[in-house]
């Protein structure tokens, strides 16, 4: 694995999932493979779970991790080719990235979409600049359109909990939110579940919230949430802003919030969310505080997902 | 020791003090007991000494420490039960704390009082939420009403310096300040000195600055600072805002600032302060720059206090 | 070496340079000499390269490093002697530095000049306060007037690349910028090149930009950039504000920007810059993106310079 930017960098999802579950059983089993290696964690946007889980994962492999918060401390990066840097940006990515490539063995990068220019966001402009100029393996810590470490942790969690022989029914359902959010978590989950191929996958959202087909192709789209949830084994709740009318909030319909009563027709479905979650907006307290919520386990599995991917990146070096 | 929130979590103060002095002699003597363990240091309010001393203490025990500054980086926590999270808070403590409990073995937490709602502050609402939801040992890094790591370091410092057979006279004296400060350091010092029982303890302050009796009961209150300081062996200088008229500044009387001339009637008293100190407001330069000041030694002992408590928490796990 | 504040703290520059190149070959060769030691990195001003390279250098020697950003998190330091601290400063350097001296074995400090009061800046007031009160070796991470870790890395880079028997011609040339910058990098480079004595050294800048002679004495000053660049082997591009008319921007002449055509008369000169660089203001894209730019290598050598100096400071303790 040269970089880890999406499921397309993965040869064998099941092998990754199994490896992650092994790390969960024995976190320090590979403490030597990262000895003397160093990862830089560059955040163009803030993070809690991703920062902690990746840092812990790196340490479990014997690596050192150093966090860098860009755009704080006066360190504003310029990304525009040919820019005459007379403004507030103090350093160009063309100069910063190669040096990070000198200081580190792997570079984790988090970028966010602006949600204004679809083409720029979906070209992964910022992430691509890091790939182009750093010269070392890049680990996506969430990019403009995808969040592959989250998706791997999601599949690890489903694999861990579902013990029946049949395929689980997995429903990704849109939920209301107070802000316009990226599509990354939803895009990435769809892309991974499709590539994994071991679930009956349904996506449910109000009309207008269709995701980019390059990620969802193969999934059933069901506009009626009740219909979608029927017989569900896992429900992934997540808000995203519109992809077609890019970055727009098209619905504030509170009926899309997942509540206890909606679980009645499911197969005692487990409820997932990548967190942070807006309680009583996306998901009701009664669901989150019940035994059907597996959000903590899901977030806990972020460590093992990151550790597995880091181990792959180290192996390839 | 399950948690470390106050002196009430301590079985044997003398044993802790002795252990701390042993760690001071040999910081790395127990470098194995924290191997593979991890502490999260969550600051809802900024910190210098507490952050550094706890981080160093953890590393001396072989632990890894990771610092998290809440309410920075857009990570605003919600604490209200049943909140409909449509505002600026992005994550509820009910979701954040269990995950921190998954990522860490021990969680250090610093909270501050709002100084507006006495009941809320004195219920230790924020700290209690972490205890309730994290599911791992909580180490208070200063809470709304107490600062037990500071108090342990204070007693270590007194024990280290006082070599006579009689009980030392220890005076906690109020000092002016430009801001309304919490009562925690004073509350906690009173609580620990009372529980320790090895000092003649006097508290001196202007009328109206009486502390909560649950912490001070057993101490002499003396409103005349000159009378209080007579024959003192140790003088702990500290500002706090009023407890009765909660959070109010009732006096700006500069005569309460500790100056050199006030030390004349003492037994060459050593002067303590938890730092940071407002020079020439709380304490005069001439005192702080003289040999009677032990504030640096006191702050240095924060490491050994933290190391001792962490060792206890690790033992109990 | 007791402190590392300038080239004056160095007995043998060549020995340092050779040591740095050895560390570059084998970064972990001295991993034991810092075991159990701890460095605090105090930034009164932000930093990327210096923070990372020093942190990595310390870890390569087995040390622990902890970063402290002063003036953030409400930790405002007071430096004025005798101050009545009724304002926004919460802690005096006289109290903070001794405690840092207790917590750490070495203290790295970055300060910046205000560029308003030449005498205060050139007395290195802030740095001197740390030296006076911390009581442990101080490592300059760039001060008001000098940047010795940068200069050592600069000389390491020249030594590494220049393989001829004759002396290289090294030209330090002023470049335009949008802000008034300190003179430190230029001062320090001049001071080191002069002390090193192994280069023909020319400084070129518009009239009025003469640097302090205590650093430049011995170098040729050439006001015509074209003349200065002729036959150059290394060109160090850097902006600084005026020293005489202190802190002023006297020229915005874009002709001083280093472009490709200006390299024609050089001996295939290598182009240096300490970074961050304002592209197409100080240096053109065509130069920075060409093979003659060695800025990444130069920044990479910051690690080995820092590691060498830390090893010296540890040896002296």
TrEMBL record, chains A, B, C:
The record's keywords, sorted A to Z, are: Amino-acid biosynthesis, Arginine biosynthesis, Transferase
Could you give a single Gene Ontology term from the biological process aspect?
A: L-arginine biosynthetic process via ornithine
In which residues is carbamoyl phosphate bound? Answer: 47-50, 75, 110, 147-150, 274-275, 302
Stored InterPro entries: ArgF'-like, Asp/Orn_carbamoyltranf_P-bd, Asp/Orn_carbamoylTrfase, Asp/Orn_carbamoylTrfase_sf, Asp_carbamoyltransf_Asp/Orn-bd
Catalysed conversion reaction: N(2)-succinyl-L-ornithine + carbamoyl phosphate = N(2)-succinyl-L-citrulline + phosphate + H(+)
Pathway the protein acts in: Amino-acid biosynthesis; L-arginine biosynthesis
Please verify whether the record's keywords include Transferase. yes
Residue ranges occupied by any Aspartate/ornithine carbamoyltransferase Asp/Orn-binding domain in the UniProt entry: 185-311
> Where does the Aspartate/ornithine carbamoyltransferase carbamoyl-P binding domain lie?
2-160
Q: Which domain of life is it from?
A: Bacteria
Is Membrane given among the entry's keywords? no
Binding of N(2)-succinyl-L-ornithine occurs at: 142, 177, 238, 278
What Enzyme Commission number(s) apply to this enzyme?
2.1.3.11
- GO MF terms, alphabetically ordered: amino acid binding; ornithine carbamoyltransferase activity
Q: How does it assemble?
A: Homotrimer.
- Record-stated family: Belongs to the aspartate/ornithine carbamoyltransferase superfamily. SOTCase family.
Per the entry, what this protein does is: Catalyzes the transfer of the carbamoyl group from carbamoyl phosphate to the delta-amino group of N(2)-succinyl-L-ornithine to produce N(2)-succinyl-L-citrulline. Is essential for arginine biosynthesis.
Protein known as: N-succinylornithine carbamoyltransferase
Tell me the organism: Chryseotalea sanaruensis
């Amino acid at each position: 694995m040269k970089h880890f930017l999406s499921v397309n960098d993965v040869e064998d999802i099941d092998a990754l999932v199994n490896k992650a579950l092994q790390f969960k059983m024995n976190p320090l089993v590979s403490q030597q493979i990262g000895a003397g290696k160093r990862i830089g964690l560059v955040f163009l946007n803030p993070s809690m779970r991703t920062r902690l889980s990746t840092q812990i994962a790196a340490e479990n492999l014997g690596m050192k991790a150093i966090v860098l918060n860009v755009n704080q401390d006066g360190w504003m990066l310029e990304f525009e080719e040919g820019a005459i840097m007379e403004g507030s940006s103090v350093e160009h990515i063309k100069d910063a990235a190669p040096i990070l490539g000198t200081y580190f063995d792997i570079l984790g990068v988090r970028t966010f979409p602006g949600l204004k220019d679809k083409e720029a966001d979906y070209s992964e402009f910022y992430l691509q600049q890091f790939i182009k100029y750093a010269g070392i393996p890049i680990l996506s810590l969430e990019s403009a359109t995808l969040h592959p470490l989250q998706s791997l942790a999601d599949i690890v969690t489903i694999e861990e909990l579902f013990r029946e022989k049949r395929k689980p029914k997995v429903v990704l359902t849109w939920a209301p939110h107070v802000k316009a959010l990226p599509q990354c978590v939803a895009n990435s989950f769809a892309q991974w579940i499709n590539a994994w191929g071991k679930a009956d996958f349904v996506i449910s959202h109000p009309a207008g919230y269709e995701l980019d087909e390059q990620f969802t192709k193969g999934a059933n789209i069901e506009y009626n949430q009740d219909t979608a949830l029927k017989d569900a084994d896992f429900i992934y709740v997540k808000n995203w802003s519109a992809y077609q009318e890019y970055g727009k909030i098209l619905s504030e319909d509170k009926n899309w919030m997942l509540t206890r009563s909606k679980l009645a027709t499911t197969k005692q479905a487990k409820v997932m969310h990548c967190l942070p979650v807006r309680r009583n907006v996306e998901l009701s307290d009664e669901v989150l505080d019940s035994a059907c919520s597996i959000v903590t386990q899901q977030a806990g599995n972020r460590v093992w997902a990151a550790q597995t991917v880091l181990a792959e990146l180290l192996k390839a070096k």
